[in-house]
UniProtKB/TrEMBL annotation:
Domain of life, source organism: Bacteria
Natural source organism: Brevundimonas variabilis
Protein name: POT family proton-dependent oligopeptide transporter
TM stretches of this protein: 37-56, 62-83, 92-109, 199-219, 240-261, 267-286, 307-330, 336-357, 413-434, 446-465, 477-498, 510-534, 554-579
Main subcellular location: membrane
Signal peptide extent: none
């Protein structure tokens, strides 16, 4: 008689593999690919959507994005604990996926967005905008029709004002009553947003945040559970898993951005929701290939326990829905998140360190402490890297010379596209070096990541100072080069970081430590928001009013953070031998 695990796999039987890895990796690869398709498809449009559709200013939009990103990476701490103690990773992933489907489809209900009004000479005019890319044109709506205008630091000017003043053609009739020129102190603007559309936006973001909280840390935990301790394939497996993440991302940023910019935001967000639906279906249909990994820690307790007459598993479904409401409130007051989250994260991190020092001993304690030190350094990496969704996206829109068919959202394809190409190369490289006992230690890989992300910003700072054209726009190649260096840094740090958590953490705390790993990204998003807000310049109806100031500001900030990344990376490289010793034999 043969024994089987909870998924029906025979215990002790040879494990089926795919390309040398457990075949469960295939299920997780495609589940995460579609989940990241939805997540990054939405992210590619979010900041531009906030500015151009809802007409938030750059500072406000980047504050919302930072709060969203921070909560997306904070809640996996809670999701990891729930999975470790009650649900198990697989059930937590399913709850998260359902919430994500709901959130992404809700994003498709965009409402009427925002409207901006300009008051000139005591008369208020509505502002309309044609186009979404670099050729966006502002119009003031008068009783006679629409007047094309430009807003600069000097003030408001009617386009082709000389012809209008001479009384030529339809433009003169259209411009009747609207001054040809108005000084900077001679006009005011105000913005009105659709209340129901704005509330729906924050509801959608909240569903996504809670969904990621249940899913993100736990699907990575299942990947780690597919491999035995010190399995040399583990780093390669996580890197291939990371390729799945980025394959979904490159598909999403291209397709969702195209639909969103070309046909309407709702189409782009709707496609992201469909991608998440495919991810949920993949995970549900592929359960048997996971061989029982990621199951509940106490199946009998989960099945037999009730809370107020409600089965314990159903209780967590209900709590997941309830959690959306406080997150919805917080997203509308994102300043609270930016102020309080660093303190909360500090308390959580201190508690984890305290537990490690007081409750663990010997090699277990040393390994956990090394993991926590590396997590600390990763905060700076993510603060710089996560400019991709905010300041780098706006740099693409405001200060990059792009072909007419190209939009700012497409630049989000650079990073995942490079990973799809170089991810397998890095996976093979680590294995090749390990066989020859030449593989860099995990701390050294982290230091490489910081140096590369710093170099990426230094490239863009140099290009901003020396390569811009008369329109104060930098050739697209330099933005691509920045993403290339950032991606090399990411391949050194992020997939290796996920693997590091599963290798250095005590078995019973892997889910929690995976959550703490994502917590570092949460804190980093707040820091990233502060950096991104420092790059912001004034806009009217989503159009930047001073392109030269915008470019100079980007160049200055990017230079500062670039040198910071390189410097901190060198410091970590110097500390690497000490940290390697603390890993106590773990590769």
């Amino acid at each position: 008689m043969s024994l089987t695990d909870g998924a029906g796999a025979t215990i002790g039987a040879p494990r089926k593999t795919f390309l040398g890895h457990p075949r469960g990796l295939v299920v997780l690869f495609f589940t995460e690919m579609w989940e990241r398709f939805s997540f990054y498809g939405m992210r590619a449009m979010l900041t531009i959507y906030l500015i151009q559709h809802f007409l938030f200013g750059p500072v406000e939009a980047q504050g919302i994005y930072a709060a969203y990103g921070a909560l997306v990476y904070l809640l996996p701490v809670v999701g990891g604990l729930i999975a470790d103690k009650y649900l198990g990773s697989r059930k937590a992933v399913i709850i998260g996926a359902v919430l994500l489907v709901a959130g992404h489809f809700t994003m498709a209900f965009e409402g009427s967005g925002g409207r901006e009004f300009i008051t000139v000479g005591g008369t208020e005019y509505a502002i309309e905008v044609d186009g979404r890319n670099t050729d966006r044109q502002l119009y003031a709506v008068t009783d006679s029709g629409r007047v094309p205008i430009s807003v600069t630091p000097e003030g408001v000017t009617v386009v082709d004002a000389a012809d209008t003043a001479a009384g030529s053609g339809a433009l003169a009739a259209t411009a009747a009553g609207f001054p040809a020129q108005t000084a900077a102190d001679g006009y005011t603007t105000r913005t009105v947003r659709d209340p129901s559309g704005e509330m729906t936006l924050f509801l959608a973001l909240s569903l996504i945040i809670v969904g990621v909280g249940f899913l993100k840390a736990n699907i990575s935990t299942v990947v780690g559970q597919l491999y035995e301790e010190n399995d040399p394939r583990r780093d390669g497996g996580f890197t291939l898993f990371y390729v799945g993440i980025n394959l979904g991302s490159v598909l999403a940023t291209g397709l969702c951005s195209y639909l969103g910019y070309t046909y309407g935001w709702a189409y782009g967000f709707g496609l992201a929701g469909f991608g998440m639906l495919l991810g949920l279906a993949t995970f549900l249909l592929g359960q048997s290939w996971l061989e029982g990994r990621g199951g509940p820690p106490h199946p009998e307790k989960l099945a037999g326990t009730k809370v107020l007459g409600i089965p314990l598993e159903a209780t967590f479904w209900i709590l997941g829905l309830i959690a959306v409401f406080p997150v919805w409130l917080l997203m509308q007051r994102h300043e609270i998140i930016s102020t309080s989250l660093p303190w909360l994260a500090g308390i959580i991190f201190a508690a984890v360190v305290g537990y490690t020092v007081t409750q663990l001993k010997g090699a277990e304690r040393n390994r956990m402490l090394v993991a926590q030190v590396l997590i600390f350094f990763s905060v700076l990496f993510w603060a710089l890297f996560e400019q991709a969704g905010s300041s780098l996206t706006l740099f693409a829109d405001q200060s990059t010379d792009m072909p007419g068919w190209f939009n700012a959202g497409y630049t989000q394809m650079f990073n995942p596209g490079i990973i799809v190409i170089f991810g397998p190369i890095f996976a093979a490289l680590w294995v090749w070096l390990a066989k020859r006992k030449m593989e860099p230690s995990t701390p050294v890989k982290f230091s490489f990541g910081l140096v590369f992300v710093g170099i990426g910003f230094l490239v863009l700072a140099w290009a901003s100072a020396t390569q811009a054209g008369a329109d104060f726009r930098v050739p697209l190649f330099f933005l691509f080069l920045t993403y290339f260096f950032h991606t090399l840094g990411e391949l050194c740090l992020s997939p290796v970081g996920l693997s590091m958590i599963t290798k250095l953490s005590v078995d019973r705390l892997v889910g929690m430590m995976m959550g703490v790993w994502f917590l570092s990204s949460s804190v980093a998003h707040i820091a990233a928001g502060v950096i991104a807000q420092a790059t912001a310049t004034d806009t009217v109806a989503g159009v930047v009013t001073n392109p030269q100031l915008a470019l100079d500001t980007y160049g200055s900030i990017f230079g500062t953070i670039g040198w910071t990344g390189v410097g901190v990376g060198i410091v970590l490289l110097v500390l690497s031998p000490l940290l390697k010793k603390g890993m106590a034999g773990v590769r």
